[in-house]
Amino acid sequence: MIDLHSHTTASDGEHAPAELMRLAHAAKVTTLAVTDHDTVAGLAACREAAGTLGMTLVNGIEITAFLNRREVHVLGHFVDPTEARLASFAAKLKVERENRMVQMVEKMKGLGFPVTMEQVRALAGDDAHLARPHLARVLVELGFCTSTKEAFHRFLADGRPGAVPRFELAAADAVAIIRGAGGAATLAHPGVSKIEAHDLAALKTAGLAGVEVEHSDHPPSLREKLRKIAVELDLVPTSGSDFHGAKVAPNRHLGSASMKLVDLERLHARAG
């Protein structure tokens, strides 16, 4: 089973790298890509655990970017985590995410919710790239919301009272960063991002290698539509559970989406 989209505590996942790999192994995943948001910090520990379990790890990253003023997520697979531009980008985004979280915490305080950066850091871990799900989980643990979904709907989603705009990176630049690190770029959950064929065609021109067809949030009809678009545009159809853990995204499960080995090989051939 091949799952090319998952997260650890290095970004907004619930499980530490070794635990994520153990859970994936238990779910009969044989090849797993760890694609933390804007960071590659968890990959070394994942690789060590994968070797112990006899699994194949695909080095990955998920870069938040913008296409025509809309937020999109670009996945990088087979990246070299030590490549200078990628490492510099990740370091810059860690600082940006920290500053953004400070502003969101202050907004929540202004709304009457006594949350603190210390609470967010305690939940996330000192080395994590801070993200909205961390603050959402704090709101749940403090009893202000019943779920992370409610926290986003009421406060943290774009345009809601606790949200703060993020650093805007062009999607084409995200593709370039991934390719510069020897990776293959694919577009994550296009259905969630409301991406159409012409958007994918534009990103293919910029170097996009594939599109995430099989995703936990894609109904069968959408998967079929995306598969046809992938064929038309010669994009590799990929799969990903987008697993974060039950406390973050309870409806996403490791191994719930898989792909053909031949397509993984095609994607690898387009790296760099």
Q: Any chance you could write out the topology, listing elements then pairs?
A:
Layout: E1 2-3, H1 17-26, E2 31-34, H2 43-53, E3 56-67, E4 70-77, H3 84-110, H4 117-124, H5 132-141, H6 148-156, H7 171-180, E5 184-187, H8 190-193, H9 197-205, E6 210-215, H10 220-233, E7 236-240, H11 261-269
Give me the CATH superfamily of the largest domain: Metal-dependent hydrolases
CATH architectural grouping of the largest domain: Alpha-Beta Barrel
Coarse shape: globular
| CATH class term of the largest domain | Alpha Beta
Q: Please, what is the oligomeric state? A: single chain
Q: Over the alpha carbons, how many angstroms does the gyration radius reach?
A: 18 Å
Separation of termini? 25 Å
Order of helices and strands: EHEHEEHHHHHEHHEHEH
DSSP strand count: 7
Number of domains: 2
Largest sheet composition: 7 strands, mixed
Low-confidence stretches: none
What can you tell me about this protein's structure?
It is built from eleven helices and seven strands. It has helices at 17-26, 43-53, 84-110, 117-124, 132-141, 148-156, 171-180, 190-193, 197-205, 220-233, 261-269; strands spanning 2-3, 31-34, 56-67, 70-77, 184-187, 210-215, 236-240. It has a seven-stranded mixed β-sheet. The two termini are 25 Å apart.
In short:
With 272 residues, this protein is of the alpha/beta class. Helix content is 44%, strand content 15%.
